[in-house]
């Protein structure tokens, strides 16, 4: 099968294109071209932007370290350890919300979120084992403090989902295996969905915490 060149013009097209101009958009900078005000993106050592580089008129780029593998791997592993460390406390928290939820709809929504979170713990343990060859220990017996009310619990849960997304995104940045990336994508999208559900319950119950 012949190679298809999307920029190759046919005789029928030639009448609409000035001779010698075959770029899809006229004025588009070619690879290696120097555009005024934009850093050169060349080969390493030839103007390539790198972590810690300071570009005039742009914010400090030193925080790019969080995106660079494997420098960010150890931090990601610690975040996984932290994510599963509160497993027992989270289970007790969900049981509290279910027991105090005023309607069956609330209970079913929270049960679904709880089941998702249990699945997340399993995925985190699997990822950690496959990255390190070590099995994370079972969750410790941690004290659980009941929220002051159902609405207070929903507010706490909503904040927890937001914080989890920020942490889990850093874990995602450190992953290289496609399967692991898919797992974290599933976890993060679940957390975002949970946040929407908690917001719905918070509004539905007229909470003002």
In short:
This protein is an all-alpha fold.
Describe the structure.
This protein has 209 residues and is an all-alpha fold. Helices cover 53% and strands 0% of the residues. The chain contains 6 helices and no strands. The longest helix has 29 residues, at 104-132. The protein is globular and about 50 Å long.
Structural class: mainly alpha
**Care to count the β-strands?**
0
CATH topology of the domain at 73-204: Ferritin
Question: Unreliable segments (pLDDT under 50, ≥5 consecutive)?
Answer: 1-7, 16-33, 38-49
Separate helix tally:
6
Cα gyration radius (Å):
25 Å
Q: Strand percentage, roughly?
A: under 5%
General shape = globular
- The CATH architecture of the domain at 73-204 is Up-down Bundle
The chain-level mean pLDDT equals: 81
Helix content: 40-55%
How far the N terminus sits from the C terminus, by CA atoms, comes to 66 Å
Helix-strand topology string:
HHHHHH
Largest sheet: none
CATH superfamily label of the domain at 73-204: Ferritin, core subunit, four-helix bundle
Main CATH class of the domain at 73-204: Mainly Alpha
